[in-house]
Amino acid sequence: MPDVKIEQKVTLGRQETARWLADLAKAIGEGGTVEVPLAGPTVTLELPEEFRCEAELELDGEKVELELELTWSPGLGTSSAP
Fold first, then answer.
1. pTM of the full structure
2. What is the dihedral angle through the alpha carbons of 46, 51, 57, 63, rounded to the nearest 10 degrees?
3. Which tens digit of pLDDT belongs to each residue from 7-41?
4. Cβ neighbours of residue 9 under 8 Å, at least 6 residues apart?
5. 24 CB-near residues (< 8 Å, 6+ apart)
6. Quick one: which of 32, 37, 17, 24 has its CA closest to 70?
7. Would you kindly state where each structural domain of the chain is located, as residue ranges?
8. Do 24 and 37 meet the contact criterion of CB atoms below 8 Å apart?
9. Is residue 46 within 8 Å of 33, Cβ to Cβ?
10. Beta strand pairing status for 63-71 and 43-46?
């Protein structure tokens, strides 16, 4: 599988952000696949049984940045559909 990077930055309200995170959490909990809506087409990912999870918090002056990262090996079930 070739290297692919899709990045999207949007501004969401509090309720929209909560709904997006809740939908993602529900899909992860149910297993199978998750559809990630992006600026272009929706990307469908097959989910593994285990994830490597990383959380990073950065406080820099007037900016707070919270990054949540989930990673897994392609052999454990990941694919994307156009």
1. 0.74
2. 0
3. 888 898 999 999 889 988 998 999 888 888 766 67
4. none
5. 34, 36
6. 24
7. 14-76
8. no
9. yes
10. unpaired
